[in-house]
Design brief:
This is SufD family Fe-S cluster assembly protein. It comes from Candidatus Scybalomonas excrementavium. Belongs to the iron-sulfur cluster assembly SufBD family. There is one protein chain. Helices cover 13% and strands 49% of the residues. By secondary structure, the chain is mostly beta strands. A 9-stranded mixed β-sheet has the order 3-6-8-10-12-14-16-18-20, covered by helices on one side. The two termini are 31 Å apart.
């Protein structure tokens, strides 16, 4: 198709052996887009919302790479800019809902927490459920974040797209002195998901913490690239990933913590836990720690395997089938992330999606 553009995305900051085919990925996206409105609920106090504005966070790079920037320019994607007032703790979360249909649509979001302020933003992605429809659907969101001095951003993203979607979710963030970004992502749908996140901890004692959960079934593909660059002194980061792969699903996770020169006293940790339920799955992981500073602490670990036989035996001895026991364990993982979402309506959306899947 003449509107389809192939791009190179999710490149590792420090490439590994080419024969592994893990240094980067190729992504094909439609460049003919529709103007799809975002359903918004924005608190009336403490936050400003600017639609169709110019890019204000040009200095903010994202995890999927420069070609997403080029795509946004080519498709003339509009920017929604959210900005808190300085010193205001916004209590009510901002709700942004993206309901994708048959037409291709991309969105550009900017979120700024001014000094000594905080806010929570919940983004949900849904798509039409029509298994008879065979053609691909394209959708994507790029989100840029900036936490100024002693500010905090809590970003929650829940992806519940149907099995026809090729979706990208790209994030970039900057944390100034004592600023903090917390990221929670729950990826349950789509045919192919490409996600990236790049956070720059520029200020002293700034922090980034993420918790990503995913459930891969049938022939779903997840391609993820998360990068944290430590520049400031005594900065902290944590990457936590909990996933389940079943049927013929595949996943690649690239997690990089990079201690730059001058980031003395900094700490970074990444931990992945993958539960394997299928026989034909593909699971790839690259945990990477780079270091140009001596006085730092970096750790990474991974737990990859099937459900313990003793656990299965115990549950089955209580009257469950193997399938019921597996389903309960998977649900418990999803419930752990849902407990961190401060909105009952979003949790209900997740439960409904799981029941219909």
């Amino acid at each position: 198709m003449e509107n389809i553009r192939e791009m190179t995305v999710n490149q590792l900051p420090a490439p590994t052996w080419n024969w592994l085919h893990m240094n980067e990925s190729k992504l094909k996206l439609d460049t003919k887009t529709a103007d799809l409105a975002i359903k918004k609920q924005v608190p009336s106090v403490g936050i400003q919302c600017y639609e169709d504005c110019n890019h204000l966070l040009k200095e903010c790079s994202t995890g999927m790479g420069e070609e997403i920037q080029s795509l946004m320019e080519q498709t003339k994607t509009k920017v929604l800019h959210l900005e808190t007032e300085e010193g205001v703790m916004v209590q009510e979360p901002v709700l942004l809902h993206f309901d994708y249909g048959k037409e291709t649509a991309y969105h550009d979001i900017e979120i700024v927490a001014k000094a000594n302020s905080s806010l929570t933003v919940i983004m949900t992605y849904t798509g039409i459920k029509n298994e008879a429809r065979q053609e691909k659907s394209y959708s994507g969101v790029r989100t840029k974040l900036k936490a100024e001095e002693k500010a905090r951003i809590n970003l929650i993203q829940v992806q519940l797209l149907d099995s026809s979607h090729i979706h990208f979710n790209d994030i970039g963030g900057i944390c100034q002195e004592e600023g903090q970004i917390d990221l929670l992502q729950l990826e349950l749908g789509s045919k192919e998901l490409y996600s990236g996140c790049r956070i720059e901890l520029t200020g002293k004692e700034s922090e980034f913490h993420s918790h990503v959960g995913y459930l891969g079934r049938q022939e779903q593909r997840f391609d993820m690239n998360y990068i944290v660059n430590h520049y400031g002194k005594k900065t902290k980061s944590g990457l936590k990933v909990d996933g389940v792969l079943d049927d013929r699903a595949s996943k690649i996770f690239r997690g990089t913590i990079d201690f730059k020169q001058g980031a003395s006293g900094s700490q970074g940790e990444e931990q992945e836990d993958v539960l394997l339920l299928g026989d034909d799955i593909v699971n790839q992981t690259i945990p990477l720690i780079l270091c140009a500073e001596e006085d730092v602490q970096g750790n990474h670990g991974a737990t990859i395997g099937q459900i313990d036989d003793e656990v299965l035996f115990y549950l089955c001895s209580r009257g469950m089938t193997k399938e019921e026991a597996q389903a309960m364990i998977v649900q418990a993982r999803i419930d752990t992330l849902c407990s961190k979402i401060p909105n009952e309506q979003v949790v209900t959306m997740i439960d409904t999606f799981r029941q219909e899947a």
